Amino acid sequence: MDLQALRYEYKHSALDESHCAAEPFKQFDIWFGQAVAATPPEPNAMVLSTIGAEGQPSARVVLLKHFDTDGFIFFTNYDSQKGRELAFNPKASLLFYWGEIERQVRIEGAVTQTSRKISESYFSKRPRNSQLGALCSPQSKVISRAALEEAHSQKLIEYPEGVPVPCPENWGGFILQPSRFEFWQGRENRLHDRIEYSLTGDAWSIRRLAP
């Protein structure tokens, strides 16, 4: 396959500063609603990038579970690679890509753990098998498939139907509190729209970046 010959012309929409919301959370809310309406699979999927003690960036797809003006929340095992890296360096970036509407959003900021109350509340709403999966998986550790399935079977015995599954102590939420947003809209001739929101003190400033 000739990858250099792959071309796609962006013609869906445009983004002008004069049409942007005054603050980025509102702009994200508008775009997220439009992404949901475009019916891509999992519009709340986002790439989370972190950096560990060795300085090596790592990225993976996680699911956004809540956002408001306080930040963006996702959940994970705190002993996982991303959990350990965020404990070492509590700064991260998020990337949303919605190909159906030719848009992406980049968000950067500081990350802290959510309260235990928030973690336990969300865990209680998860499907039962997802709860059991969190109990039996030593996330990011080396394991065989047989050992993983055996651990799951044991948890099924330990927590039969009707017995509440407790939220593990090493499992919970992170909240990223943004200091920078970039809204990207694909345009023809690769003259894409890039609108940046940056936080100074308590105020957000808006400017256009070259594509």
Annotate the secondary structure layout.
Blueprint: H1 24-37, E1 45-51, E2 57-63, E3 66-68, E4 71-77, H2 81-88, E5 91-98, E6 103-113, H3 116-125, H4 128-136, H5 145-158, E7 171-185, E8 193-200, E9 203-209
Antiparallel strand pairs: 1-2, 1-5, 3-4, 4-7, 5-6, 6-7, 7-8, 8-9
Would you write up a description of this structure?
The protein is of the alpha+beta class. The protein has helices at residues 24-37, 81-88, 116-125, 128-136, 145-158; strands at 45-51, 57-63, 66-68, 71-77, 91-98, 103-113, 171-185, 193-200, 203-209. Strands 1, 2, 3, 4, 5, 6, 7, 8 and 9 form a 9-stranded antiparallel beta sheet that branches. The chain is globular. 23% of the residues are buried. The model has no long low-confidence stretch (mean pLDDT 95).
